[in-house]
Amino acid sequence: MCLLFLLAGGRRAGAETLGDYATSRTDGRTVTITSRTGQQLRFTAYGDHIVRVRALRRGEPPFADDRYEMVVPENHARMRGTLRLHDGGAFLRLTTGAADGIEVVVQKKPLRLELRRARDHALLAGEDATRAITWTDGASTSAISKQCFAGAQPGERFFKAGTDFYGRSDRLDRTGTITAWNYGNQTNRGVYQAPVSLPFFLSTAGYAIFFNTTFDTTFVFDDQGRYEFSATDDGAGGDRPQLDYFVIAGPSFRAMIDRYTTLTGRPRLPREAIFGLQLSDKNFPTVSGSQWWQEKITAHRAAGFPLDVQVNDNRWRDPNGRREGSQFRFWTAPGGSWHQPTPEQFKHWADMTGIVSVLDYNRNNSNEMLGWRPGPPPGYSLDPRELADVADNDAVPDFTSPATRRWVWDALWATLDPARGLPGDALWLDETDELYKIPAGARCANGRRWAEVRNNYTFLLQKAVGEGWNRALPSRRPWTFSRGATAGMQRFGHFWSGDIESTYAEMAAQIRGIQAAGLGGFPFANHDAGGFHGRVIPAAMYRQWVAAFASFAPIWRPHSEANTASVDIGAGASRWPLDHPAVEQADFMKYARERYRLMPYIYSLAREAAATGLPLARAMVIDYQDNPKAWAHDLQYQWGPAFIVAPNPSDGGTAIDVWLPAGDTWYDYWNDRALAGSDTADHRTTPATAQLPLFVKNGAIVPRYRYARSVQEMDRSALELDVYAGKDGAFELIEDDGISEDFARPARSQKTQLTFEDARRRLTIVQPRGHYAGAPVRRWFTVRLHGYAGPVGMRVDGGGDLPAFADEAAARGAGGGVSWDAASKVLSIVTAPIQVRPGALIVIEASGTPFVNPAN
Question: Which of 44, 60, 536, 615 is the most buried (most CB within 10 A)?
Fold first, then answer.
């Protein structure tokens, strides 16, 4: 690998390279190697499967561990490991403690490093004589650090976590590409919103690399033989980027994601209602307010539609309800949008109705907010002399300052404080990415230049909010989302992709974008379903995107810009289903019912994401990283372990090819038709408009509740389990109170183990231990066995055969029984209510006797 520095600020131009080996020392965890010309290589074990690599030029001290908080600060001490050092004469060998860990080989003359797999010494990546660590100071150019590998391994493929502007990804396979996803600047042709800047990539060779820097980065993945990554200060001067990165062992992508989110932090789990439908007031000009919300929500609930989250855009803010010139306070003056009902009255109504309230903070209004101090310290802004070309230049908080971070939380808390009884359960942090005209060399309160801060700017705001929330509301989970993200921010909050276009090309970019974000620690990525800039979108797009695809995205939040006229411009502008004709309403209701019935499945995936980093929308490469088909089919994804989702970014009625992996049978979700998986031929399908291609794997166990119009209304005493024949399977259903942080305590969470034995048609339910507020004390089960040729008798816990009925409803009305649907070939078993007894087994299985058809 080569590291190249070109530096501005009048430094002397010239190259400095790593010389020959001189000395080495070790403390058991860190090995420090010094060259004859004074440079250093430092290797530190972070547990058994991660090695930190730092390269320092002569006389250069390393940055402090806490300079970049992308790594959880405590992990520098907590993730201790060992590095065994062996001197082989011409080389040094460094090995982590695990047999499946990492081996680093350092050739001595000259110093060159190789990254290897410990168990068999296989080369992962390495330098050669010409592609090695080098520093160069340019007299008048940017400071650039560049790490160059000699070349990729044969057949190696690369996945780069994160997204381009607006949360977009044009492809998941980055092999042969150059990727630079950073905070916007003036060279980006005015495009600047919402990049997810994650300097992290994964390789099919079985390793990942996390580049520990907030300077702008560029990654070159075997493009014309070049394999390198670099950091630049964009001509800012000041401190130079240093080479500091973490090598993370796999070999599986699952293991790399788990270890990466151990290092940088687990994703913050939102409350359960956040995974329900979220709708906003943005489409409606100058009309929304507390009364409007009550009427709108009541009408939609009365029509049977669900809603859990009201997203308040600008209209709620005093004194004008506009994007600019308003503060973080309800507009309650006579004529204001929240005059009647008052915010307190609305909050009481919302709590009773099961509505979560999101309030937006616009960074550009900071100067209007409580306690704002203009100017640099002791003020809260960047130096105004650096902001002449910046819009809203009197409202640019410098979040590198602890005082500014305290101010912003205090200003938000003045309204969020539950003691005041106001709506405000979640935060939307907007406008943090519109500062691209700040000069790269502008100095921030922490002494660093803007070039080193800008990629971390949203992180610092999310940190202020996240830490403030932890202090003030330790028992209630936050939901905060901002435009764009940086590595490590997932432990404080989440992101959405900004003001996207209403086109099918955009829809495709968002399908890939949620996968790319999920692979980098952001499993709860969200976007404006239907696009922001399409005030009026075609009916087909509403059905295809707002209803179908978005209902199978991590967060379901339709949203678009308001009309500029003084009155509403019709149903096409709204994203609310009741504002659309009957066909769109029917499709929206279809997918609303599917999402809400799947809530126990979705929420279990969310719990898994918070524990391991594994996303809800899983790129096919997560489970099939060595299969070329997985890399070619990036417009489809796994929805947890059970489903493959293949949204069609078109009006529908056009043929698409879906890859159903070989070795499994896949059921068409809509008609139960069984399809054999194949790695040679795709499944070609021509789905009609609003018919989302959706497939279920054999052996899948899919838990459901009955449909309810909000999470609060869900009946958790009735659990439905859809089981798909052809393979043994298992699933862990995870439930908790959905609101508090108690879920982290095993005694306040319930995990129900579900195991299916295909040949015996046996489902075993291990009842959960622990208890949470609202947990059912009795539960009846509906089990549906899909994919068998005919019915058989069934029993529960070794009892006699259950009576047969014509359908599920009749079996349920009789207190339990079995029914057979000959058309879909689904055998349904309905139990009587069963007492929840921690650790007890419930066994539902074939009895071996014939099914007695009630019609006979």
Answer: 615
